[in-house]
Amino acid sequence: MNFVPFLNAGAPQGAGQGSLLMTFLPFLLIIVIFYFFMIRPQNKKQKETQKMLNALKKGDKVVTIGGIHGVVSSVKDNTIIVKVDENAKIEFTRSAISGVEKSDEELAKEAKALEEAKAAKAAAKAEKEAAKAAKKAAKSEK
Predict the structure, then answer these.
(1) pLDDT digit string (tens) for 46-66?
(2) Confidence (pTM)
(3) How does 29-52 read in b/e, with b if 16+ C-beta sit within 10 Å?
């Protein structure tokens, strides 16, 4: 007696491919979620940090990873000399710089630009409301 034909008799022919897709779908979704919530933001942050390090110039106020505040005295290929006191200069690798502090002038410029944007938005809103009122008045005259 040969029972092999009876084992496969109940299984449909195309069921293997559909179940294979359903098996891998959760794994694909997990990979997509990891990409959008972990990998992509990390790459974006790394590019911004590299851009900031490449843009360092003499006179920038910087903070190191260790928390040392100072002013960039000179910039070399892979290192930066930071002046931390009148007579104290320390040489750091570029990767040891965690951020650039914004000067008072830059902060004032940003605040001014923000105020101008708010004023422009308020003016556009007032103009839109005036146009609505004019339409309403014209409609009521008819």
Answers:
(1) 999 999 999 999 989 999 999
(2) 0.56
(3) eeeeeeeeeeeeeeeeeeeeeeeb
